[in-house]
Amino acid sequence: MGEKENLNKKLFGLVGKNISYSFSRGYFTKKFENQNLSDHQYVNFDIASIKEFSKVIHEFKFQLRGLNVTIPYKQDVFLYLDKVHKTARKIGAVNTIRITKKGNLKGYNTDVVGFQKSIEPLLKEHHKKALVLGTGGASKAVVYVFEQLNIDCIKVSRNPKGKREISYKKLNQKLLEEHTIIVNCTPVGTFPNTENKPDIPYQFLNENHLLYDLIYNPEETAFLKEGKRKGALTKNGYEMLELQAEESWRIWNK
Questions:
Q1: What is the pLDDT of residues 157-188, one digit of tens each?
Q2: Hey, CA dihedral for 243, 244, 245, 249, is it positive or negative?
Q3: Which letter does DSSP use for residue 151 in this model?
Q4: Which partner for 179 in 29, 118, 129, 204 could form a disulfide, CB atoms 3.0-4.6 Å apart?
Q5: What Rg value do the Cα atoms of the chain yield, rounded?
Q6: Sign of CA dihedral 118, 122, 125, 126
Q7: Euclidean distance between CA atoms 46 and 54, whole angstroms
Q8: What is the domain class of 10-109 according to CATH?
Q9: Which helix (H) or strand (E) covers residue 11, if one does?
């Protein structure tokens, strides 16, 4: 479940499934070293089911100060929280948990801050509409940001459900020319499956497009390569991860 923890340390960690690749652990371990925080430790809590979350909290309740939450538990974790920040509640996804001195758990969404701060400098006058690929927890934060920025967006899903969701098969030249921002919120193209890419009609991309991939490994996904070939502006998710990590740190140290 977790790794070997020193009982005297202030403990932070990532809750998820199959997370050995974790960006967060490496990022915070380096941060703690750079700031000489030898009494701080960041570990992975790789759990097979959200039902194991309670065991993590119980076992390390005297050490835990904060947690990050990743796939596939950003929505399921709501059931285990004492409070949820209004933004996270509206989005329907939590990726950061602050643990108070009394042991209460409050959920936040720092993906919002990370995504907004990283995409805003790239936006141009013609970026009025967006396609959001995927419907998971991260896509909910992306849609929320676009709503705040008054950018109209449609979710693209293999199994569309809501009125603002369409299937990949419905994507055509008109839709792609109108929606000049395309954000990949799916894991398609992540290492080691780097040849894979979302099933969109890339032939209709042009220099007006901005392609943003939440994936950071590889640095340039097949999705971004296709965009670059067509003259589109491209960006991966690394800066977003750094920004959301720093926002998590701010929340934990309130």
A1: 999 987 899 999 999 999 999 999 999 999 99
A2: positive
A3: -
A4: 129
A5: 19
A6: negative
A7: 13
A8: alpha beta
A9: strand 10-16
Residue range(s) of every CATH 3.40.50.10860 domain in the chain: 10-109
- C-alpha distance from residue 209 to each of 22, 96, 112, 125, 231 (Å): 30, 31, 22, 12, 8
Backbone angles phi, psi at 197, to 5 degrees: -155, 155
- Record the tokens describing residue 68, joined without a space: 């990050």
What is the distance of C-alpha 50 from the center of its chain? 18
The token duo for 252 is 């934990």
Superfamily of domain covering 113-240: NAD(P)-binding Rossmann-like Domain (3.40.50.720)
Query: 130 is written with which tokens?
Result: 């967006």
Q: What one-character DSSP code corresponds to residue 217?
A: S
Residues designated as active site: 74
